[in-house]
Write a structure and sequence with these properties.
Number of helices: 4
Strand order of the largest sheet: 3-5-4-6-8-7
Largest sheet: 6 strands, mixed
Helix content: 10-25%
Number of strands: 8
Structural class: alpha/beta
């Protein structure tokens, strides 16, 4: 049963040679090399040579940042602290604030960016699924440094809010109100 290979000329533009395997017993007098030529009448321009793909032999390792929480509701909170985790008083205040918008520690991911590089922050943003980003008193997120404080910004369906230090917010009523207004826009 012969196969109809005439359709191949529509997909393959170069000249192809079929070399039959030496292991096959040839009882008939078939040529060992068959040529398949192009049958279309349109001229075909040669394709540009492909650039070689350079691959790094060494994998790149990025030191993970100190985190806390499970990010169940896709909210990442960046802060700067001397210790790996947020201080007890500031953490208690933050959890009260987050409870007001129906979020708990399991719903968010707290990330200390004090010693973070731009690559580490980008890795966190790429690794953890998020719809909301809160930044407390940090200039480490380059893409949001020019954003006004306490204003919700949207970037590719992800909401961002930049705020002052948690200790400063806790002690200032006007900052609490500004933070509450921003969180309402972001979460409610």
């Amino acid at each position: 049963m012969a196969e109809d290979n005439s359709f191949l000329s529509h997909f393959i533009t170069e000249e192809i040679y079929l070399i039959k395997d030496d292991l096959v017993a040839t009882s008939t007098q078939e040529p060992l090399v068959e040529s398949v030529t192009e049958t279309s009448s349109e001229p075909v321009s040669p394709s540009p040579p492909k650039q070689p793909v350079l691959e790094d032999d060494k994998p790149v390792y990025i030191k993970p940042l100190p985190t806390e929480g499970n990010n169940l509701k896709h909210c990442i909170i960046f802060f700067e602290a001397d210790q790996p985790q947020l201080e007890v008083e500031k953490k208690a205040f933050l959890l009260k604030v987050m409870a007001s918008v129906k979020r708990s520690l399991d719903d968010v991911l707290l990330v200390n960016v004090r010693e973070a590089s731009a690559e580490q922050i980008a890795a966190v943003l790429n690794e953890f699924n998020h719809r909301h980003v809160l930044v407390f008193n940090s200039e480490k997120l380059d893409s949001y440094n020019n954003s006004p404080v306490y204003e919700v910004k949207e970037d590719r369906k992800k909401l961002f809010l930049k705020a002052d230090d948690l200790g400063k917010i806790e002690n200032t009523v006007a900052l609490k109100k500004a933070l509450w207004a921003g969180l309402q826009k972001m979460f409610l």
